[in-house]
Records
---
Amino acid sequence: MSILQLLYLASATLFILGIRGLSSPETARKGMNLAAFGMLLAIVGTLFHHEIVTYKWIIAGLILGSAIGVPMSLWIPMTAVPQRTALSHAGGALAACLIGVSEYYRHGISLGTGHMAIIGVEVLLGALTTTGSLMAAAKLQGLLPGRPITYPFQNASTISLLAFLGGFIVYLTAHPGATHLFYILLACSFLFGILLLVPIGAADMPCVITLLNAYAGLTDAAMGFMLANRIQIVTGSLDGSSGLILSILMCRAMNRPFTNILFGAFGKVEEASTEVLESKKKSVKSLTIEEAVNLFNEAKRVIIVPGYGMAAAQAQHAVRDVADKLKALGVAIKYAIHPVAGRMPGHMNVLLAEANVPYPELFDMDDINPEFSEADVALVVGANDVTNPAARHVKSSPIYGMPILDVDKAKKVIVFKRSMAPGFAGIDNDLYLLDHTWMLFGDAKDSFTKLAGALQNVALQK
Amino acid sequence: MEHAIPIPELYIFLLAAFLGYQLISRVPPLLHTPLMSATNAISGISLVGSLIVAGANYNHVSNILGFVAVTCSTINVVGGFLITDRILKMFKKVKK
């Protein structure tokens, strides 16, 4: 037993070193190998645990889990990473939730107050994270509509359901034998996860997916408390704080108060008046690929601003291609990444890395913003609200105060866009109306492929 | 069954949360996606608890719940480490 505890201690140390490795792309892989080794130690050590008498369920679970986990990781496209992440939160939370149910089933009425409370919390958090994450994954995959679905008395009903669930747990701590109530708690917690995610739109996912990450971590820590398994308390706590920090960063970048999102009090879409959109459509300037090429004449510095639209159009390779052609013409290229561009934190970085963009060319918002005034051309591909200068000075705008990329300060701006449809905030983008902004309408992948071809011709002529 | 409040465990939880805050704050936004898959893989340590429930001589219901939990946690452990490595492999300083 003490050997196992020492193994767990070693694993916890290796996990911490592993996460520390993620502070730089150069040390990250080595760190994760350490963490994986730590995991192996913990698992192999546990297989010799004295309470284990039969291996049939264990072997079946390990084989089935690997059979699902390996293809889910090696063959899914990089654009599907947010869905996969949501699914893994669901899996982790479900595991902890079921172990909580198993413990209740075993001990039931003999559970002490502390244990009953922790099992109640574990089951509540685990169940709501499971269904919530499944809903998130379905929305990200497009199986459910990505726009928020609202219904009357939404906040009132979710908050009262949560109050009921809390009440159930309190009652159960005093009367752990109330078996029916426990299973009602379980069922309602699953339902609660669904209700929590229904009103949330796909564009809010960076906030929500990180919050579900925090919940999954807390569920894990609760399971650690229940089993008095200290390594699980450590990992659950690390996972929980990671999710929480990321969630706070995402909320800040989206200009949403963190207190609002804890219980899903968001997803409200401001109604955009279509009339205004129509009138504005007339005043934007659109241009063709050939005209776009001319804008690069004498350009020395170009900044590319990717957003979710790039992922949706799978345009990352075409974008890199244009960057290569421009580099061949002697242009310096940088990429400007807003924290909430895409559907999860770091989404754009991963897609561009996949397209073979060296990571020193990827810049965070705070680092790149001072450079826009020096940029000859800014290319906006599939990003909208995070470039809207209204956030700076229009006090009535729903995105007022949101940190944005200073794209409007570039000398020329080309916006690649499918249509004039507004972004997730449902408002018009003042950037499109500026004198030095041109719109290039069409599918982003298609436009960039054509642009790369046109730039190639320019290079040949020189 | 223990009735007292698990003070040592609460210390561990609290200290790990502070450590987590310090560690995670140093992860650049560049690596936030692999960070999420990495913490997900590591939190698959719930596998160790699930293994015992799936293999212990408690009762059939527990064994089966344990089996499902082992399956889910294994997906996270195996899948989490694999995809984290797959993502991290793509981050290159210079173009090939």
Note: Chain B is about 75% helix and 0% strand.
---
Amino acid sequence: MSVNTLNSASLKADFPLLGRQVHGKPIVYLDSAATSQKPRAVLEAMTTYYDDYNANVHRGAYLIAEQSTTEMELARQKVQHFIGAPAQEEIIFTKNATEALNLVVNSWGRSNLQPGDAVLLSLLEHHSNIVPWHILAKERDLELRWISVGDDGHLDLSNLDKLLDGVKVVGISAMSNVLGTVVPVRAIADAAHERGAVVVCDACQLVPHRACDVIELGVDFLAFSGHKMCGPTGIGVLWGRRELLEEMPPFLGGGEMILDVSTEGFLPNELPWKFEAGTPPIAETIGLGAAVDYLTDIGMEAIADHEESLTAYALKTLEDRLGESIVIHGAAHPRGGTISFAYRDIHPHDISQILDQHGICVRAGHHCAKPLMRHLGVTATARASLYLYNTESDIDCLAYALNETAAFF
Amino acid sequence: MSGLEDLYREIILDHYRTPRNRGEMECPPAHRGEGFNPLCGDDVVLYILADGDTIADVKISGNGCSISQASASMMSTAIKGKTFADAKAINKAFKKSLSLSEEEEGEADSAEEAETNEDNSVDLGDLQALQGVMKFPVRIKCATLGWNVLSESLEKLNLD
């Protein structure tokens, strides 16, 4: 039994939005897998940047320009340490995880994949780790293969060796944004490396919720978003192994990413700026740095423990109070706090609409994972997803309000 | 509960629970059209069997929320047996009834009213129950999903 050292009820006070009401009821925010709420510290860090030292980075030789550059690069170091990356040059800031994955596919993929090469993905993938590969596959005549998902919500790795045969790259989600499945990334990465394949990991649902170390994960690229980990929107991260990044051509061209430009051509900048064309999202990067500080102060172990016990409470409470009328779609332990479910035969859209009247925010839909939805045989699910600020009381509200939906259907 | 009764009117829930003209048809001779709501993955499939310029038969399949499926069911009863031109007019009147409500509080009330009266030549009947979705902007796409398939289908059928 893990020791829960978090006091989520008091943590809520750190998040201004969680103090508001919706339809006259206190908000119960259960959609952190879509985006997390932001603590005051993050909002203040961004406001301070604009109020005190707003200046473009890596350009001006004046005090506030130096300060903005220093703060932005400091954020890079914070992110580096947060995910255990060996070097800060390996941290590339992007718009979001989607852009980070597109960067890998377009830069590494275009320079390394030839017609007939195979790409191995899992059925748990978010569209952002599927569609970029589809686009390149069509252009380059690549073969896409899929790791299937078992009834327990976990990947079926029984035929992994066979699937890996001839595979050049594996795209794998570390934690499902639909089922909460914790994926054995290390085991898959090791098997892939034995075959000489490169491993691209979508860690959007892992980095905000678990202590994360890129060396321990054993992957080659790791992508995640700032806005799911208490940071602002508009900032994402790609980590890559330096030797791979060094060999890769730039993704987007423009300012910042060059050392020299002439009428004949250009010389790309060094890492990480080679991949950061144009004025970066400076305030958002600094906000992400503040989010990393916030999470680090609380402690990722404590957050993981809290989510673990709250998830267990949620699964038990929903089952106890709603019995056979609720069906939880996967996943068996180990799993995170993302709970997809069906309730009676009420469509998820209608569930979400009625829960909204109780101030409860849950996601309804395909969660940008249509291949997985097809595999599950559903067009949509309702999804409640937990984070550090959620409490047992939030779960009780959900169970109560779900019962109420029966009044309409 | 504020507004939910307007959204989930009994007539809508009735069409949701007992959808009319549910099924599929062989194509050809029928025409098949499909529409997706990329937001939630809902889909509506519309089969139209034409007899000249008349909708001789219609079937609906697909999956989705109460609003998208009820709206498609109500649409099927409204257009069955109608000419393409009549179906088009009903489609136009239905969509207009939704967007008009949106501007209810706008300044152009009198001008809009004049247009409404003009449209009264088309009797929306039960379809008026769907006007409750105007209070729930996200759900308007659900309500219009089947109707957008109808627009596309009629366009294609007119070309055939």
Note: The longest helix of chain B spans residues 140-159.
